[in-house]
Write a structure and sequence with these properties.
- The protein has 434 residues and is an alpha/beta fold.
- It has two domains: 178 residues, NAD(P)-binding Rossmann-like Domain (Rossmann fold, 3-Layer(aba) Sandwich); 170 residues, Dihydrodipicolinate Reductase, domain 2 (2-Layer Sandwich), CATH 3.30.360.10.
- Helices cover 31% and strands 21% of the residues.
- The chain is built from twelve helices and 16 strands.
- Helix 5 packs parallel to helix 6, helix 6 packs antiparallel against helix 11 and helix 9 crosses helix 11.
- The longest helix has 20 residues.
- It comes from Flavilitoribacter nigricans (strain ATCC 23147 / DSM 23189 / NBRC 102662 / NCIMB 1420 / SS-2) (Lewinella nigricans).
- InterPro entries: Gfo/Idh/MocA-like_OxRdtase_N, Gfo/Idh/MocA_oxidrdct_glycsds, Gfo/Idh/MocA_OxRdtase_bact_C, NAD(P)-bd_dom_sf, TAT_signal.
- GO terms for molecular function: nucleotide binding.
Amino acid sequence: MKKENPASRRKFIKQSAGAAVALSLPTILPARVFGANDRINVAVLGVNGRGKSHIAGFEQLENVEVTCLCDPDENVLGERAADFAEKYGRKVMTEKDLRKVYENQDIDAVSIATPNHWHSLAAIWACQAGKDVYVEKPGSYNIFEGRKMVEAAHKYKRIVQHGVQLRSSVAIREAIQHLRDGLIGRVYMARGVVYRWRADIGKKGPGKVPAGLDYDLWTGPADMIPFSEDHVHYNWHWHWNYGCGDIGNQGVHETDLCMWGLDVGLPEQITSMGGKFLWDDAKETPEVLTSSFLYPKEKKIIEFEVRPWMTNLEDGVGVGNIFYGTEGYMVIKGYDTYETYLGRDRTPGPKNKAGGDHYANFIEAVRAQDPSILHAPVETAHLSSGLAHLGNIAYRVGRVLNFDPVKEKFIGDKEANKMLTRKYRAPYIVPKEV
């Protein structure tokens, strides 16, 4: 099997490990054209939480092998490697630094399940190193990163799949076709809901970095703040330095589906309000958040609701979407179920429940080196994550925002525009020129 030029890989690692400036590499063409019988070697980056599902998802596929696990916490890494050996009967390579993973010429693709603040940079570096990428939602931590990830995927001709698995659901794809075909008439509104059980996480405050955790590497491109169990490991979701709240966590599945079903991109007007009404804990992001995204030219609107605790369901939806049309409405529950109700009397219409395999779809595209096969290509990662970011920004500045979806800038609002990116910490810099 033909591999990339080792010198190019060494140059990448040297630059990314020691430079305090953005990476800039020559285009690396696809390493090879995969044959049907070629094994694809995958590295999983971030194995504390969602990464466990990535491991299982790829390991069940024919002629695909997880050959490397990567995590900056060597305690987690050791546990997961032991679990892997017991479950799959073989030893797996381990690395704490993703840059060393990218140097390995035998790894064909990386699956990114790190905290949000690492997603785009890890994906961009992977593209520059000639790897194909499966990246968890949200694909980006901010609007700027999402755009750079799209540019990197195209420049380096890499396959990049966004981890919104509902896009591979047979039922959900069928549902979208019904919307396109006019089953519920002209579709003018989408409502996304995220009603998840989010408990009080307490306040532990600053503490000592545990042995085995490379906290500098874990922090990566984020601001360096004192270590705390309040954010390492899972609860980083609720801190602005690393996460995006539940609209940017579970919610990205639903923001993606809202945009897909309405057939829209980024909006022109955003308003968002909410707050912390339940717990006096360490969370920074709002527990309750209500956001509206207006598309005046298309005469469409997205409503989005986040609730963390005791609540009703909406036509059985606790996590999912509702689409409203001139002739009926459609309810989508979770990742694999839809129902339709037609006319004023709510006559039950078509419905289905059927899943899919998002990992298999990614591998199919990798084998063919054809991004058109992907159900959730890199552009969808930027847009669905971007909608969540816009909602968060409107909440944080506390006012209605006007947005130019072509330039991807707020109109006449310097404070809001500053939140489209962040100041990066060397050498973990998302490059302006990929």
